[in-house]
Amino acid sequence: MRHNKKFNHLGRKAAHRSAMLSNMAASLILHKRIFTTVAKAKALRVYVEPLLTKTKEDTTHSRRVVFSHLQNKVAVKELFGDVATKIANRPGGYTRILKTGYRLGDNAAMCFIELVDYNENMLVEGTKKASKTRRSRKRKTADAPVQEAAATQE
């Protein structure tokens, strides 16, 4: 019985799955965005977000815990350097999944998974949407002076 076993096994044995998630997490940290299937991206998000939370306090212990998951010195250095400063004031939700369509060969759902603070286009669009105002029914205010001027000339 598989009661209360909710995470996705991704069709792999435990060792293969942990190695794959470790490699994908290191690639995500180094490249800031990777292209993968939706199922792997959702599994990666569960795997990598606690590691990103650990980077908020830069201690030897947290570095060792993160290294035990990633097994990549370059990724750990990048994570505790540049990435940690960008996510320092964010209270969670460090990754974003953007669905892109379906793969041609097997019709698998594909997506980008990216670090939220590194997509400059989404950050700019987010500020534009905040300045948008509600539309009003009173649109004739600009035309009213023209109509009044025409009425006074008659």
From TrEMBL:
| A molecular function GO annotation | structural constituent of ribosome
Q: Name one GO cellular component term.
A: cytosolic large ribosomal subunit
Keyword Disulfide bond found: no
Basic residues biased stretches: 129-140
Ordered alphabetically, the record's keywords are:
Ribonucleoprotein, Ribosomal protein
Keyword Ribonucleoprotein on entry: yes
Q: Which GO terms describe its biological process?
A: translation
The region called Disordered is annotated at 127-154
One short Pfam family name for this protein?
Ribosomal_L17
Which InterPro entries does its entry note?
Ribosomal_bL17, Ribosomal_bL17_CS, Ribosomal_bL17_sf
Q: Summarize the subunit comment.
A: Part of the 50S ribosomal subunit. Contacts protein L32.
Fetch the PANTHER family from UniProt.
LARGE RIBOSOMAL SUBUNIT PROTEIN BL17M (PTHR14413:SF16), RIBOSOMAL PROTEIN L17 (PTHR14413)
Q: Which NCBIfam families match?
A: L17
- Family indicated by similarity: Belongs to the bacterial ribosomal protein bL17 family.
Kindly provide the name given to this protein in its UniProt entry. Answer: Large ribosomal subunit protein bL17
Species: Porphyromonas loveana
Gene name for this UniProt entry = rplQ
